[in-house]
């Protein structure tokens, strides 16, 4: 079969018809495809990690395998200038891409937006560009993680594969979730974390139908990545003594709860900080190609003034802080490092470096936990009686701050479990994570990703599939053949043309064919029959003069309009000219809306019949 164009206007080669039928015909085929996505994602994550580490080693003259945020003897010149050099590379890349574009620039669709609005359809070209930009940003030392690039390219691969097999909308969304799950599982060596990342953040829900393919993809991604690249443990807990000096009781949830609330506030400040930096960059009117270089210079200056631990995602630095043999730091030094890392992350993203806050939020959370453990016994002497160690507070803070910024309470809880292997600390993590997540949701309302959508004008709050609502528009639902009557027509003529028993409502237009209102035929006949004074005119009988629909409204907005106006039908007009183009009834709208809701429910439960 010849290749065809996809929705992203890129050449799409379809899979053979027999394979398409196998994948579309049953759950086993989709699971097999998810396994393939997982293997490809694991290899992709490993390759990106190797290439990015090689770039760090070249720019900072690092020994093989040494992380830049954990290096102790970096040259001050490299620390200052390497991030700026990376910013220059990004600027030049942006110029080159802009020259090659034949269409207007548009925002890159990430996995969350793809599943919420576009049925899992993503551009492979845009995803590859994001991955390259993320590698340059992280490799040069900008304070961003690679997880955004991992999930973008792996979800993009899954989307492209799903389009090749012409998957149904629900299966396409699931496969995009499989790509993201495999990416996170491969990045952390944590299959449960990857799976619940997909359920909570990319697919938007958990169901029996999505369980098997997502878990298979996460397992395959983790296994393949581990086979290709050695992954040292981020947290090593050698016995319960590393977590607590006394037996853990229900009372230990109190300091965990307090730390969760603190991390919620810090997470909101970090997200607001990124927005402030972006606003400052826009106000400065720096060219988009120059801003990353200036931002990189600022990040390098912070690293030179405070610590190289603010550079890159922070993997090496997190290892140091969660290692019992790591360097001891006082409360003031830890707080200063936290402020520097948060500032570096805000500057990096705000100035145009590509990446996310996933790993940066983990590192910042660990620092917040250490500050809490060191400062609270002085501020609240009774807290020392709980017996949790600084390592326990660091792990709890790591998860609580990450959930404030990224979202996904179960994702971060399972991450703590898989990184530590400790069930006692995981229980305390769950308390802090719930407190942090609930506080951010009720006071701020967004995760970092959905906050970015809000700033762009999008209304989505999660990956729940709302694209079908937007596609179910008034223009698709309305009846186009609409009988109209001129406003200056005598009432007697109107009554002869519309006797009782004919359609119960008539749309009235003025002399310029613009919408004037709706006349109910029974009301018109009753007005003549019961009137004691002068005969009324059509203008006297008009209803809903200002209450109209437009073709681009979706069914949900239309249903709300029917409720507000208490009307059973409304005219659909052209927004510019107010000419009547159709008529929509409440009963038809609610029927179609209910049918689509039921179809979505059945798809979520795996009932494809």
Task: Characterise the protein shown here.
This protein starts with a strand and ends in a 5-residue tail after the last helix. The protein has helices at 17-25, 27-60, 76-100, 111-117, 124-140, 147-164, 169-188, 191-203, 208-228, 253-284, 291-305, 315-321, 331-350, 358-379, 390-405, 409-420, 423-443, 448-456, 467-471, 474-477, 491-497, 521-530, 538-541, 555-565, 586-604, and strands spanning 4-5, 11-12, 484-486, 505-509, 515-520, 569-573, 580-585. It is built from 25 helices and seven strands. It is 62% helix and 5% strand. The strands form three sheets. It has a three-stranded mixed sheet. The protein has a two-stranded antiparallel ribbon with strand order 1-2. The longest helix is centred in the first third of the chain and has 34 residues, at 27-60. A hairpin with a 5-residue loop joins strand 1 (4-5) and strand 2 (11-12). With 609 residues, it is mainly α.
């Amino acid at each position: 079969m010849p290749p065809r164009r996809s929705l992203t206007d890129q050449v799409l080669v379809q899979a053979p018809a027999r394979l398409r039928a196998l994948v579309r015909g049953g759950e086993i085929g989709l699971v097999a495809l998810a396994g393939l996505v997982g293997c490809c994602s694991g290899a992709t994550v490993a390759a990106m990690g190797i290439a990015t580490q090689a770039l760090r080693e070249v720019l900072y003259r690092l020994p093989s395998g040494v992380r830049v945020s954990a290096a102790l003897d970096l040259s001050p010149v490299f620390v200052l200038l390497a991030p700026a050099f990376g910013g220059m590379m990004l600027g030049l890349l942006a110029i080159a891409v802009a020259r090659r574009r034949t269409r207007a620039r548009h925002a890159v669709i990430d996995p969350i937006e793809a599943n919420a609005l576009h049925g899992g359809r993503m551009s492979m070209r845009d995803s590859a560009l994001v991955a390259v930009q993320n590698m340059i940003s992280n490799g040069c030392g900008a304070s961003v993680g690679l997880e955004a690039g991992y999930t973008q390219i792996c979800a993009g691969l899954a989307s492209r594969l799903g389009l090749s097999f012409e998957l149904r909308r629900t299966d396409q969304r699931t496969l995009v979730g499989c790509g993201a799950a495999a990416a996170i599982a491969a990045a952390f060596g944590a299959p449960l974390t990857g799976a619940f990342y997909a359920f909570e953040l990319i697919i938007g829900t958990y169901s029996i139908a999505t369980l098997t393919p997502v878990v298979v993809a996460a397992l395959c991604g983790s296994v393949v990545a581990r086979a290709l690249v050695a992954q040292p443990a981020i947290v090593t807990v050698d016995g319960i003594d590393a977590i607590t000096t006394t037996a853990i009781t229900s009372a230990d949830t109190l300091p965990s709860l307090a730390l969760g609330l603190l991390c919620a506030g810090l997470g909101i400040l970090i997200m607001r900080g990124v927005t402030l930096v972006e606003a400052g960059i826009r106000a400065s009117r720096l060219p988009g190609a120059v801003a990353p270089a200036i931002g990189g210079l600022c990040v390098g200056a912070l690293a030179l003034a405070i610590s190289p631990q603010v550079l890159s995602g922070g993997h090496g630095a997190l290892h140091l802080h969660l290692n019992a043999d790591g360097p001891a730091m006082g409360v003031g030094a830890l707080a200063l490092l936290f402020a520097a890392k948060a500032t570096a992350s805000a500057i990096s993203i705000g100035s145009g470096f590509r990446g996310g806050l996933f790993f940066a939020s983990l590192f910042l959370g660990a620092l917040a936990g250490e500050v809490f453990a060191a400062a609270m016994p002085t501020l609240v002497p009774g807290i020392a009686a709980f017996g949790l160690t600084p390592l326990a507070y660091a792990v709890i803070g790591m998860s609580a701050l990450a959930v404030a910024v990224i979202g996904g309470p179960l994702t971060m809880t399972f991450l703590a479990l898989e990184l530590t292997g400790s069930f006692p600390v995981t229980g305390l993590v769950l308390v802090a994570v719930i407190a942090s997540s609930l506080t951010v949701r009720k006071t701020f309302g967004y995760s970092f990703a959905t906050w970015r959508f809000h700033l762009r004008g999008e209304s989505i709050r999660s990956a729940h599939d709302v694209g079908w609502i937007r596609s179910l528009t008034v223009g698709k639902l309305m009846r186009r053949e609409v009988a109209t009557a001129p406003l200056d027509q005598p009432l007697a003529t109107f009554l002869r043309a519309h006797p009782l028993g004919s359609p119960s409502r008539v749309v009235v237009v003025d002399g310029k064919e613009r919408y004037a209102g709706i006349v109910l035929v029974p009301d018109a006949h009753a007005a003549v029959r019961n009137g004691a004074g002068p005969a009324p005119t059509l203008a006297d009988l008009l209803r809903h003069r200002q209450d109209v629909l437009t073709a681009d409204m979706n069914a949900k907005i239309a249903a709300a309009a029917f409720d507000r106006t208490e009307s059973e039908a409304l005219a659909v007009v052209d927004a510019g000219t107010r000419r009547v183009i159709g008529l929509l009834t409440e009963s038809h709208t609610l029927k179609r809306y209910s049918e689509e809701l039921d179809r979505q429910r059945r798809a979520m439960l795996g009932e494809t019949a």
